[in-house]
């Protein structure tokens, strides 16, 4: 495992602890949610037409679970549609992506947020960066 991978693994472990993590140089991340694919409709789903997918609000439960359901012609990668992912809020999306295999390129699913997915040990990991206005709303 490379030094970069070990450092990222350590940051992820600290971020999952609930305290958040930083690298001492201004970069930080903290746990945001876990996304779990499902084939069953869930109460409170929101439809995302761009992705042909439905998702629940991760803040609707105390554990940050976001249920995700996909239409047959959903354009997202199969790995995202079939494997649970963990998501971290970061303050520098570009820096978070460094050294990782990018699964979904940076994009903005809604105003004030940029997201991207990477593959870590065969699993999808999502990074989210919020604008200051979005973070404090």
Task: Compose a concise summary of this entry.
The protein has helices at residues 3-19, 78-82, 93-97, 132-135, and strands spanning 21-22, 28-37, 46-48, 53-55, 65-70, 85-90, 101-110, 113-120, 123-130.
Q: Which structural traits does this protein have?
A:
single chain, about 140 residues, alpha+beta, 2,3-Dihydroxybiphenyl 1,2-Dioxygenase, domain 1, 9-stranded mixed sheet, 9 strands, globular
Topology:
Layout: H1 3-19, E1 21-22, E2 28-37, E3 46-48, E4 53-55, E5 65-70, H2 78-82, E6 85-90, H3 93-97, E7 101-110, E8 113-120, E9 123-130, H4 132-135
Parallel strand pairs: 2-5, 6-9
Antiparallel strand pairs: 1-2, 2-6, 3-4, 4-5, 7-8, 8-9
Alpha-beta content class: alpha+beta
Low-confidence stretches: none
As a percent range, the share of helical residues equals 10-25%
Distance between the termini: 39 Å
Shape descriptor = globular
| Topology-level CATH name | 2,3-Dihydroxybiphenyl 1,2-Dioxygenase, domain 1
Oligomeric composition of the shown chains: single chain
At the fourth level of CATH, the homologous superfamily is: 2,3-Dihydroxybiphenyl 1,2-Dioxygenase, domain 1
**CATH structural class:** Alpha Beta
Report the mean per-residue pLDDT as an integer: 86
């Amino acid at each position: 495992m490379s030094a970069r991978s070990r450092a990222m693994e350590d940051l992820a472990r600290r971020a999952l602890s609930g305290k958040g993590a930083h690298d001492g140089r201004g970069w930080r991340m903290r746990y945001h949610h876990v996304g779990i694919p499902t084939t069953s409709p869930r109460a409170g789903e929101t439809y995302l037409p761009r992705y042909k997918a439905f998702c629940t609000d991760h803040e609707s439960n105390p554990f940050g679970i976001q249920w995700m359901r996909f239409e047959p012609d959903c354009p997202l990668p199969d790995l995202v549609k079939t494997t649970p992912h963990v998501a971290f809020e970061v303050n520098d999306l570009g820096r978070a992506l460094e050294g990782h295999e990018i699964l979904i390129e940076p994009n903005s699913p809604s105003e004030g947020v940029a997201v991207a997915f990477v593959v870590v040990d065969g699993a999808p990991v999502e990074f989210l960066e919020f604008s200051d206005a979005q973070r404090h709303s």
